Amino acid sequence: MNAELLAKFEAEVLGWSSVEKETREDGIVGDGEAAIYRFGKRHIGHIHHDGVADIELTREVRDGIVASGRAEPHRGGFPKVVSFRIKTPEDIPELVELFRMGYERAEAAAERRAGHTNLRRENISWKK
User: Fold this and answer.
1) Containing domain of residue 60, as a range?
2) What's residue 123's pLDDT?
3) Is the pTM of this model over 0.85?
4) Total domain count for the chain?
5) Helix 59-68 / helix 92-123 crossing angle, nearest 10 deg
């Protein structure tokens, strides 16, 4: 993966609230590291060292993106994941947009979980 393209992408994505990056050995593509981006504990997507980004979306959104030709089905066959090949600086805005969709999905899930937790706490009655 081109370090300059990765830096341009990360300048945007790592500025979003609660997004963190970790790196791991890229076991899918061989020698090298994959950059993994998370919203809290939830995986948004990752970029393999060969320049392919995999982004988790809903199945419906994923199907629409694949049908439009903006990205490809995940090369490993995961049904809610798109793969996007990063080749030039012109690819970065599209990549950021795809990651933003994954980010918003993760953010909405966190808000739902927080709401369920608050509802459970409100419904607990303590007996003395």
Assistant:
1) 3-122
2) 53
3) no
4) 1
5) 170
Degrees, nearest 5: CA angle 10-23-79: 85
Q: Is residue 31 part of a domain?
A: yes
Residue 3 and residue 33 in contact, taking contact as beta carbons nearer than 8 Å: no
Q: Give the three-state DSSP class for 97.
A: helix
Q: Is pLDDT above 60 for 59?
A: yes
Task: Look up the CATH number of the domain holding residue 22.
Answer: 3.90.1150
9, 96, 99 from 109: Cα distances, Å:
24, 20, 15
Please say if the pLDDT value at position 121 is more than 60: no
In a domain, 74, yes or no: yes
The answer to whether residue 128 is domain-embedded is: no
Cβ neighbours of residue 92 under 8 Å, at least 6 residues apart? 5, 8, 9, 86
